[in-house]
Records
---
Amino acid sequence: MAVIYQAVYRRASSLFCRFHSTYVRKMRYLNELKEDDSLCRQARTSGTFYLFHNLSPFLQKVGKKYFIPQLSAAEMKRILEKFNETEEWIEKSVLIGCSDEHVPRFALDLGALEKSVIESELKGSFTDLRKALFVVDGKDSPLLASAQCLLRWHDSHQYCSKTGQPTQKNVAGSKRVCHASGITYYPQVSPVVITLVSAGSRCLLARQPTFPKGMYTALSGFCDMGENVEETVRREVAEEVGLEVESLRYSASQHWPFPSSCLMIACHALVRAPQAEISMNSLELEDARWFGLEEIVEGLKREPGSSKQDDGCFLPWFPPKQAIAHQLICEWVKQQTSQPA
């Protein structure tokens, strides 16, 4: 029956492909995998796997570059056999995407197996995600982040919040179901605004005590229940630095895995220059101050390791280009330098 279904699906797909773009076909195929357990289970046999160990992704280093290896189903079987584990382990994998050629990609956490043995066998290492995101190719960072968030969500949603009974994931891992209550749980993201405040020729950056020494970034905070983006921006700026936003504009968004699965909504906010005296909330921030254009340009050039001075103090540096805060700061610099003198 499965073979017949696959043949019908391929025939329908061939007709569909004549009229739709590569992107549309890809999204439709992923949706089919999420909704059809039989199809997704079959797709795993020809898919590739990204490995994690207690939510740390597996990387390989070649020269000075880091890569994310993709293991075939056959390679996964070989690894599991080395631990005398059955292929039932594959059932724990989650679908995280597919290539333009419709090769599905899955993520699997092997945290219950001996880490050193896997690393030795595959000649690589499991790396903390905070480091991994900034050493792999930029196009691979979102995939790692979304894979880890999905694995984390499944790990923390194994029981129904109403009945306390175990929940079961579908094959793709796009949902979990409590059969006792009939409740279906879907992975969720938390909306967070990140705002670059500016007044005239200055922009405001801040730091928390937990930040790396010398690092400053834009203000950020979670959306409260019932708030829209504009209300959250105004509230966060008022709470953290005591300023009232006059106007704001949306810039872009980015999925961010810390502290959990977040949707970063990036905005620029203007405050009136005569009313731009900072009143910092010391319960949330360690420091907040205004930066001029020259300071910002120099800070963008500065590497974290080069910011320490002889007296032990740290010169300001800013988030790397993979973070949306970096994009906000660069947009502000571009706007400042494009203005007529």
---
Amino acid sequence: MQINGPDSQAGVTKMATFEDYCVITQEDLEGLKDCISTQDLPSAVKTIKEYFKQQDLVELNIGVTGESGSGKSTFVNAFRGLGDEEEGSAKTGVVETTTEPEVYLHPKYKNVKVWDLPGIGTPNFKADEYLERVEFKRYDFFIIIASDRFRECHTQLAKEIMRMGKTFYFVRSKIDFCITAEKRKKSFDQKTTLETIREDCEKGLRKIGIKDPVVFLISGWELGKYDLNVLQERMEKELPQHKRRVLMLALPNITLEINEKKKKALEENIGKVAFLSACVAAIPLPGLSIAADIAIIADELRKYYRAFGLDDPSLQRLCERSGKTIEELKSLMKSPLHQGINPSSILTLLGAASLLISEDAIELLVSFIPIVGTLVAGGLSYLTVSRMLKRALNDIAEDAKNVLMASLETEV
């Protein structure tokens, strides 16, 4: 099956595949078919809505621990996209400010909870008692932070976490301080410096009983630099499937790699959102389909802007770090939606998307999902909305990339 599409470079018409214009693949259609094949229309709608509800309720609990003054609280803040003095930030200081586990909710995703745990390394420290006190069962994984060398208290804790079947990551913090100090040397080479720090940390851990240690070099003040991408890849890989999306959406959009992974995570829901739209379109009530379509789409588009940090509160924080104004950052945004998500802008994009949908595409959909395909309107809505959301997501991700690159050029 082919759909006509313009080739702007050659100035001729080329034949594009179905997947070029719609994110929905045959595998996606099979998944939806399996999900709702035995249900009537109201039950199918209820199934998909319940899926979205449960998706938003998935919790991610991260325990951050280390010695006093190691940068625990700064990491807790940076992971949530906050500075140390912003509203909702964890208290920081050169002395231990945390005596009990303190939970800090993500400012955008309340199901993401980052816990600032009491400091370790006291003379009578016992890892098993410590983990019992902080209720270790609640955490999906632990971040064990050291601002210098890892010591016995860190390895005791790591071994006890392993014994209890949990995951942990060694993080060497305050790397920016080390780089600043080393830059004074004429022979300074950043890559060599980072490798020396990493090897020293891993060698020290091996000496005190950790086999094949992996250490991630992180700066709480410059979280997007150094090993953040490697750390998030490792965390994502080792999390259960249903929690990976939560992690990717919650991470601050501060590297190009994270920007791309957020896009892929958001893309996964387009098929189900379009299905809701199709079900609404298949209900023969005047005016219902278009009004409901707009509400469904607007909600999804707002999720895109929030996840990429293009909402006004996130842009304001970025301005404070980069020295740019909101107007400067918004001038880099080319998506038709950046001026506002409203019925007019959504209808314009839907209209453009519908022109790309062929009868063959609708017939393909009908063959896979008869419950929707009983009415052509349902098939058209499904394909139109999926096409429109894919295009919007691509545009918004590109805007986020441009804003990120501009902020990195001037970040203070």
---
Amino acid sequence: MNEKQVSGDNDLYDDRTTEDAENHVQLAAGDAAVLAEKDDQAATQTTRLYKRRWIIVLLFSFYSLSNSFQWIQYGIINNIFMRFYGVDAFTIDWMSMIYMLTYIPFVFPVTWLLDKKGLRVIALIATTLNCAGTWIKVTSAKPNLFAVTFLGQFCCSLAQVFILGMPAKIASMWFGSNEVSTACSIGVFGNQLGIAIGFLVPPVLVPNVEDMDQLAHHIRIMFYITAAVATALFILVVLIFQERPKLPPTQAQAVARTIPSEQYSYTASIRRLLRNRSFILLIITYGLNVGCFYAVGTLLNRIILTHYPNEEVNAGRIGLTIIIAGMVGSLICGIWLDKTKTYKQTTFAVYFMSLVAMIVFTATLDLGLWVAFITAGSLGFFMTGYLPLGFEFAVELTYPESEGTSSGLLNCSAQVFGIIFTICQGKIIDKFGTLPGNIFLCVFLLIGTIMTGLIKSDLRRQKANHMARAAEGKTTAQQAYGATAQITEPLTAASHC
């Protein structure tokens, strides 16, 4: 697809502050007025959408799947790995929480590297680490090698740092303005599908058998399958994954490409983001929501087995239900945002429904497994469906800052709250039971819902695209007027003669 649009490179940013001029371009509130005054100076740039964009986002989605599967593969059969390695429940919980802990110190250097080196380098590092982690685990299927399996899990958790912030960046760099939310949802979709498979497959591949040699055999098979998939995806990334399209997909991206790299300062970008009140509120609310999801996912085996003993397989199926429903919710929300651009309203509605679903799940957990399946599905639809909403809303609130940086800060918040909630809820469940543990999460979802309502809907990326289209329309009209004048002027002169 080809389209001619006005970039408005100079017009959008003439009112920037001295600090912004030295570091990075800031979209200011007065940009529309500046653009209206200087339309005649605007230059046009060609934008194009390439079919390859779908290959890029799907390939990312698949290697994200491979990594997220491993996040939950220990936790969902918590009791089996406890017996196999001879460790307690809290130690196995750390096999999931290591994903959260690793993210926090590494997110800032990784987002800096993403801005400096680009998508392809980050993709190569992610798949290399993920592949290495899976093969380390293959060697750890012995009861005395827990340290080795933890090392493998650490490598995979480090790979995750190079994955979580990518969906919004890929969507912005490859997709048109009416596709970015859907593309971001597809990127998140892979992560969710991996978690879904992580809930479903380990209880099937690793049954709770008494014989330790047989159990080691089952665990080794699971590790070999994971390693084979990760290796195949690493090879595909090396051969196929591309940094960015030759021509930008949108005028917003065209403007971003004109910013000289020497004018960009990562630390100045972080400072600007942390002065953005609406974005700070979103960081907190996103962390609360996703942190609750991480806690539920990590502790789901313990929650279900407390009420329904010896139901490891059904615990995995309930986890699968949460994620499948969430994937549907993610795609629906992404398509809805592309059609309506109602970021604030949609984010608030989904957040509120996450709270309602968590309350219902908590209140009905004792009513039977089939009820747990239904309520867990509704919880997943809204809580997991919120993930791409947060990414896209952040990009709108922070444009033209790097999508990787804003996504990184959101994910960092999610990991911090995820660790806190998982530890606290786990201790509450051990001491008081699942009901107080789930009520603990409901309280924080209520706080997050209230804070979401306070976020100001300042859609900067949409404004940039609208102003570019308006400038293009005015330029086209001026060109048409000039052409008409050239035709009519000789005729007028002839009539006077």
